[in-house]
Amino acid sequence: MKAKLVRDRIPQIIEEAGKTCRYRIVYGRERLDFLYKKALEELYEFSEEPSAEEAADMYEVLRALCLEHAISMDVVANVAAEKRMKNGAFLNGFVLEHVGEEESQLELDLDDTFEELLERTMKENNEGR
Fold first, then answer.
1. Structural domain count, the chain
2. Does 51 map to a domain?
3. From the CA atom positions of the chain, what is the Rg in Å?
4. For each of the chain's 129 residues, which pLDDT tens digit applies?
5. Is residue 55 domain-resident?
6. Residue 2 falls within a domain, yes or no?
7. Model pTM greater than 0.90?
8. Could you list the residue range(s) of the whole structural domain that residue 43 is in?
9. Per-residue CA distances from 101 to 46, 94, 104, 105, 107 (Å)
């Protein structure tokens, strides 16, 4: 089995079911690395099967990441509301394809599927470590 971050009570639940497991607790940069990987995993699972269960998993990973960075979820909610008021939300499906600039043009390549983007992101993250 490949090591992966699990919810805090999972080792206890496994042992209470009469099974054994080996785990370790990670800290610092390693914990952040596992949290970022977990965020991608949960986002992918939500894309495959949108549900409250999968959304709750993404939410818990976000809570853990914010805690690691000393960011209050109340502050996140307030900033989100401010940004929604100023810039809107993501409800209407606007896809920016071109932005004109005075001397040049910025072209955004958004043709990748979610799976291609996820695969490339994970590959780039693994090469950088």
1. 1
2. yes
3. 19
4. 899 999 999 999 999 999 999 999 999 999 999 999 999 999 999 999 999 999 999 999 999 999 999 999 999 999 999 999 999 999 999 999 989 876 554 444 566 677 777 777 777 767 755
5. yes
6. no
7. no
8. 27-73+92-127
9. 36, 20, 5, 5, 11
